[in-house]
Amino acid sequence: MSRQPILSCRNIVVDFDGFKAIQGVDLTIEEGEIRFLIGPNGAGKTTMLDVICGKTRALSGQIWFHNRIDIVKKQEHEIVNLGIARKFQAPSIFLNLTVFENLELAMKQNRHLWAVLRARIDSGQRKRMMEVLAQIGLADQAERKAGLLSHGQKQWLEIGMQLMQEPKLLLLDEPIAGMTGTERERTGELIREIAQTCSVIVVEHDMDFVRTFSKQVTVMHEGKILCEGTMEQVQRDPRVAEVYLGKGKAEHAESVAT
């Protein structure tokens, strides 16, 4: 049975004072899918995430969420409320608060910042927080100040904070940057776990990581989609070799992953 699209981007154009960072991109993400966006620096990968989450306005085009809601002109908070969460490259957490308090602040509810810390959470909310703590591997760090966590743990905590919003689509921008090998492996497994209930779009430069954890890859170049397919398929595409290596020879495509 084919899955339904959760996100459909159609003819997206982004213009920065005459420079078209995105040039007519079409991108479809299915429910429960992990999609990797790859490409050289300046290809437009992060800009696409910015457009989807509302941080950057598209000059033209449509973005359909669940095939019925065009989010291209909605505000960031409206998009979050619809079920799209975004994690940026650098972890954005409250360093002086505990891991538990960070998740509490991120809980999906109407709230004011400090009121949440003093509010009494119910048993259902506490259960959800403990589930997320276990999922991100920080159950034994719940009472630790976030600033004392390792870099990888901080990244997981912010992913956990996004999960507290109960998203249907999670956007991750270079989630393994600066991580150890073990942390990278754990992050890949975490993404797979998340995809059981939430579609995920990942911008990533580490081709070994992409090869290990991807099923579908979209290659971007100069604000356009160059090709899509499995990692094996895109590696064999001579256009991919040309983009990464400056050579238009298919036999060099395998070098993209090294």
UniProtKB/TrEMBL annotation:
It comes from the Bacteria. One of its GO terms (cellular component) is plasma membrane. InterPro entries: ABC_AA/LPS_Transport (IPR051120), ABC_transporter-like_ATP-bd (IPR003439), ABC_transptr_urea_ATP-bd_UrtD (IPR017781), BCA_ABC_TP_C (IPR032823), P-loop_NTPase (IPR027417). Residues 7-247 form the ABC transporter domain. SUPFAM superfamilies: P-loop containing nucleoside triphosphate hydrolases. Keywords: ATP-binding, Nucleotide-binding, Transport. The keyword GTP-binding does not apply. The keyword Nucleotide-binding applies. One of its GO terms (molecular function) is ATP binding. This is ABC transporter ATP-binding protein.
